[in-house]
Amino acid sequence: MENDKDRVVEEQQGEANAQEETATKTELEELQEENERLRNEANELLDKYRRTLADFSNYRKRQDRDRAQQTTHITMDVLRRFLPILDDLDLALKNVPAEYAEQGWVEGVVLIKRKMDGLLDEYNVEPIEAVGKPFDPNYHSALLQEESEEYPAGMVMGELQRGYKLDDLILRPTLVQVSTGPGTGETSPTNEQE
Asked: Which long-range contacts (CB under 8 A, 24 or more apart) does 73-80 make?
């Protein structure tokens, strides 16, 4: 009987071990599933974090670019307001009578002109070269066309108002007189009527 008891005890222990093993496997599977779920959740959160970080970085770059563009536009607007003053100074200095050229007030006007030129230099403002160059509508605005023996057709033969550029941006195009080339020697109908 003792053998029967031992066998029953062994069977019970085997069943208990089997149940314990099954419970351990089930618990292990549940832990692995929980681990996988948490890993997926962590990956999703990491992906969201990275996207948010990239979006924020792009936002900052866009804001910096917009701020730089706005600064450039404001600078251009202010500099454009100085250009007529500069034109007036140039015109005044060109028309100073010779007998007044050595007077102090003329030298003061020259000094003011130099300061204005220095200000434009600080902002990398350069005059647009025009005379003797081919007409370019990006830099020049044609106000007059005239025949010329000296300049071929399409070349700028005179500057009526100086243009300026800020780096590669046009502050003001140069108003120019463009050559139509050498004349044919015939008078045009508009000239005959005059």
From this structure: 75/123, 75/166, 76/166, 76/169, 76/171, 79/120, 79/123, 79/125, 79/164, 79/166, 79/171, 80/171, 80/172
- Domain range summary for the chain, segments of one domain joined by +: 126-184
* CATH number for the domain running over 126-184: 2.30.22.10
State pLDDT tens for residues 8-62: 667 777 777 777 777 788 888 888 989 999 999 999 999 999 999 999 999 999 9
Q: Give the predicted TM-score (pTM) of the model.
A: 0.64
Nearest alpha carbon to residue 142 among 113, 114, 177, 109: 177
181: left (phi over 0), alpha (psi -120 to 50) or beta: left
